[in-house]
Structures are given as C-alpha cells and as structure tokens.
C-alpha cells in the first residue's frame, strides 16, 4: 500500500480524537467535562486487576499494606495501554519513557522529567509549527505518542503500532483488514529516549523505511549508518562526553579512578571508550562495576555491594558514573546507607546528573558532582506553557493524572487506582498549581523540540521543492535523514520559537559541553575545562560554555 499523505483530506483512525481546532491560539488548553469518561476505559472498572481464579480481587478493594505483596503476582493488567493523539493530515509517531522500568511489572511509576516533560515538549512544538509558524500551508502535523516504560522489549511492542499503516503485500490468508477501517500512516517517529530502545525500534522501522529521530539516545552504536540508515538524532554521541570526562580527570590531577556503568549499549560502549582513553593518558582504573539495566532491575543489596567494592579502594576517590537516573539513584541511596557521602567525587554522564530522581533524598551523596551534559538552551515559551497546565485544561495527555498525583502526592477524585497512588492519603483539591518553586525541568528538552522541528522543516522543504509527477513521500525518508535536507546539514534559523540543532550526528561533528557542579561552589567549575576542548571549532571562547 502506497503512503498517500499528500492529500490533506486523508483521515487517520485514532482511539482518542482531539482536534487541533479545540486549542486556543498557540497553547493547548482543554476543558475536561467528565474525568471518568476520559481517563477510565469503558468496560474496565480499574486500571489494575490482580487475577484470582476464585474471587478475582481488584486492587481497589485491597488495603494499601497489601499492595507490595500483590505486585509480585503475575498477569496484572498494568498499565492499560494509553496513547496521546492529535489529529493531523500527516502524523508523527512518538515514543516516550513516560514510566520508569519495573522488575515486577511492565511499567513502574511515572517519570516527570525524563518522560512527561519530553512528551509535552513534543506536543507544544507541534502547536508552534501548526498554529504560529504554519510551515506547511493547508497541512496539519498530528501525533500518535506511546509509552515505552524505559524497556526495550515493551518499546518494540509499542512501535508495532507505527508500522501498521505501512504494511503491504501481506498474505490475505494470514492478514485481513476490515474494509471500513482507516489506517494511520506514520510519516516518521520521534524517539526513543533510551539508546537500547532506539536500537530495537530502529531495526523495525528500517524495514518499512520509516525515518526515526531520537532526542536522548547517545550510544555510539547508533552512529553505524550501515545498520541504522533511517535513524538520526539531535543529541550528540557519547564519544564527546567520554572525551570531556577524561579531560576533567586530567585537569583534576587524578591518576586512579573507578568506573560504574550501566548494562546497556549506552553504558557499555561508553565504558569501552573510557577504558581506552584513560589507558592512553596513563590513568589507572581501580574498580569497574556494572549496573543492572537490560537484564532487569537490581535490588538494594546489589547497590550496597557496589559501594562496598568502591570503599575497598580508598585511594580512588574519583569515580565516573555512566548510567541512567533510575540505576544511579540506587547507587546514591547505597552511599547514604553506608555513611560514605564524603568518600567519593563523582563525574556524571548526562543520563542522570541533572535529574531530581537521583538527587531527591540523596543530596549529601551527590554533593560536589561534576556532570557532563550536551549544551542545550531552553525551548522558548515551554516553561510558561507547562506551568499553566492542570487537570482541567490538559485533556490530550492521558498520563497527566498520574503525573499530577505523583507531583502533589495526592489522589485525584475518581482516578483509577494504580500500584503507585494507593499510599496517597490526601485527596487532590484541584487548587494545586505547578510553579517554578515546585517544578524541576529536564535540561535537554531542546533536543526533543529539535527532533520535531527537523521533520517539520524536512516536510516543508520537500513540499516546496518537489518535482512534478514525483510522489514526494517516497523520498521523504532520505530527505529527513539529511541527504537532501539543508536543515539537517546546515542548521540555521529559528531564533525565537526554539532552535534548530547545532550538533547533529552527521552535521557538525562537535559539541560544546556544559558542566554542572552539584554543590555550594559552582563557580569553581568554570576554571576546570575549556569548552574548546570538546568542540570541533578552535575559535570557541570560554564564555560559550554554559554552566547550568
């Protein structure tokens, strides 16, 4: 079946249909007439059901002190599959880690910074594209966003939704379509966040020539264009971070360090490069420890063992941690339990060092951390937009109620019970407000906005310069991937409503690295490393380096 989205009258089938016309000028504020009709699936009393052959006990009838026991049971219907959908003539898929991973369940608790905020950034950027910039006259770009729960296998399962409209030449005996069904054709996918999930999804999407632009996946493995020809990213490869870390170690005069890295393509590839660069610079490695990631979720005793091994090498006070927030938070809790908060000086990767999931409750353990992060600017207007959201005006995000309950530690009236809101004793009043004082923002949201903008500009240019009698969608994947797209090759423009990328994988080969010092003496970080060490251009000035 040939894609035919050049026709603005084409329609797409969605489970939830939210028309863009319902938004006011640029910001998507909706009114929710009836919470239960929107957030509670028809015919299902509760989101989670613990299967019991005799009485079929439901979570809502279970005392909170028994929830942990029920988490170990199999066949729980958590989570109910949800999707954030905006209607459009052309639809972009989105794969976000709205929830954390969980060992006993498919999905863990909601992830505010790394999941909900990137999702809202994607939707906000689409509002800017469709309503303010109007890049493609007569065509509205829609979205179909799913949750991968920071788990590669589940993310791959979700990504199957993105290829259904592209499937053709299937044996009718095995695959039959309802004649009245409307297939949605996904023109490209924004995501995933995790490198290991992006690898899995990229292997699937390439079979259907669907372009994919990730915003947080930094593994060097994804730079292999022979394997991932339909994949690109708006965030630079970890190779730049690794170089920055080694230079920091050298500037600090450390000759003996430990390395902790996560068990994923993100951590393993970085470790291999770190090991080689440290050896080349005559720096010895005291302890090498791997954090469980792909094979499951580690228990607290595993983190305690890692910290005890670090303590056996007291001369190696410096430790590099290349991992994600959920795993590193476990390490920091173990440091607190071991009363070893002043035993280590951390150098952290972008996967954890700016996330409150790690620092909350572990402030003493993370104090003094120097983190390496790709330089990113704020998405203009996003903070104001996000802080203006509430339960009554954000209808299009089906996970927003979970975020609200998590953020304010309350139970929203009428909301379904989950494994993570049963302990909330206070009811949400509806008068809660997101403010700059109670909300921490993800520092790399620019890369999410850049990914959406890349598709928009690619589609706009292809429409403008398409040749007569040529199906422009056929060459769209190649165009988005940078072969014809000047916005991926030569970033420029967009000074007010977000910025086009400045460090594309196949464009500018360098990165200005920003450093963050988690502690009292942030000013001292400026003297450690010159940004020009990590940027291709040799004329970068010191004040080009952001200290966030």
UniProtKB/TrEMBL annotation:
It is found in: Membrane. Keywords: Glycoprotein, Membrane, Receptor, Transmembrane, Transmembrane helix. The keyword Membrane applies. Pfam families: ANF_receptor. It is a multi-pass membrane protein. SUPFAM superfamilies: Periplasmic binding protein-like I (SSF53822). Residues 118-460 form the Receptor ligand binding region domain. One of its GO terms (molecular function) is G protein-coupled receptor activity. One of its GO terms (cellular component) is membrane. It comes from the Eukaryota. Its main location: membrane. Gene3D superfamilies: 3.40.50.2300. This is Receptor ligand binding region domain-containing protein. The lineage of its organism: Eukaryota, Metazoa, Ecdysozoa, Arthropoda, Hexapoda.
């Amino acid at each position: 079946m040939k894609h035919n989205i050049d026709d603005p009258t084409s329609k797409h089938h969605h489970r939830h249909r939210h028309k863009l016309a319902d938004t006011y000028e640029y910001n998507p504020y909706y009114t929710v007439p009836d919470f239960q009709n929107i957030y509670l699936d028809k015919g299902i009393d509760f989101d989670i059901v613990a299967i019991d052959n005799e009485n079929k006990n439901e979570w809502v009838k279970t005392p909170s002190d028994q929830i942990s026991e029920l988490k170990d049971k199999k066949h729980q219907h958590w989570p109910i599959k949800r999707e954030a959908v905006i209607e459009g003539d052309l639809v972009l898929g989105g794969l976000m880690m709205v929830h954390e991973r969980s060992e006993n369940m498919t999905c863990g608790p909601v992830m505010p910074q790394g999941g909900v905020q990137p999702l809202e950034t994607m939707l906000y950027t689409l509002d800017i594209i469709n309503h303010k910039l109007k890049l493609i006259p007569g065509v509205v770009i829609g979205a179909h966003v799913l949750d991968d729960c920071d788990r590669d296998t589940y993310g791959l399962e979700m990504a199957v939704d993105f290829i259904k409209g592209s499937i053709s030449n299937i044996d009718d005996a095995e695959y039959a379509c309802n004649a009245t069904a409307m297939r949605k054709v996904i023109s490209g996918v924004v995501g995933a966040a995790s490198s290991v999930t992006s690898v899995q999804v990229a292997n699937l999407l390439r079979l259907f020539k669907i372009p994919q632009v990730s915003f947080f996946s930094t593994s060097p493995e994804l730079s292999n264009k022979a394997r991932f020809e339909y994949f690109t990213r708006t965030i630079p490869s970890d190779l730049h971070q690794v170089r920055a870390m080694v230079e920091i170690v050298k500037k600090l005069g450390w000759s003996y360090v430990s390395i902790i890295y996560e068990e994923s393509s993100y951590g393993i590839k970085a470790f291999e490069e770190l090991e080689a660069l440290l050896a080349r610079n005559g720096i010895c490695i005291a302890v090498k420890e791997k954090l469980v990631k792909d094979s499951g979720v580690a228990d607290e005793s595993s983190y305690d063992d890692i910290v005890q091994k670090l303590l056996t090498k007291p001369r190696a006070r410096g430790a590099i941690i290349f991992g994600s927030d959920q795993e590193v938070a476990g390490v920091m809790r173990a440091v607190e339990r071991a009363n070893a908060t002043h035993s280590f000086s951390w150098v952290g990767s972008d996967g954890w060092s700016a996330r409150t999931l790690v620092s909350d409750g572990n402030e003493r353990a993370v104090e003094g951390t120097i983190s390496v992060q790709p330089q990113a600017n704020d998405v203009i207007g996003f903070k104001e937009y996000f802080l203006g959201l509430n339960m009554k005006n954000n209808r299009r995000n089906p996970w927003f109620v979970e975020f609200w309950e998590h953020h304010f530690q309350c139970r929203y009236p009428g909301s379904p019970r989950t494994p993570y809101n049963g302990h909330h004793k206070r009811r949400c009043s509806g008068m809660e407000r997101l403010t700059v004082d109670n909300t921490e923002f993800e520092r790399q949201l620019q890369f999410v906005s850049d990914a959406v903008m890349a598709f928009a500009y690619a589609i706009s240019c292809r429409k403008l310069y398409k040749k007569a009698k040529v199906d422009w969608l056929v060459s769209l994947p190649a165009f988005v991937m940078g072969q014809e797209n000047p916005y991926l090759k030569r970033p420029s423009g967009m000074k007010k409503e977000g910025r086009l990328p400045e460090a594309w994988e196949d464009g500018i080969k360098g990165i200005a690295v920003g450093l963050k010092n988690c502690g009292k003496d942030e000013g001292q970080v400026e003297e450690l490393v010159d940004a020009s060490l990590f940027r291709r251009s040799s004329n970068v000035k010191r004040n080009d380096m952001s200290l966030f």
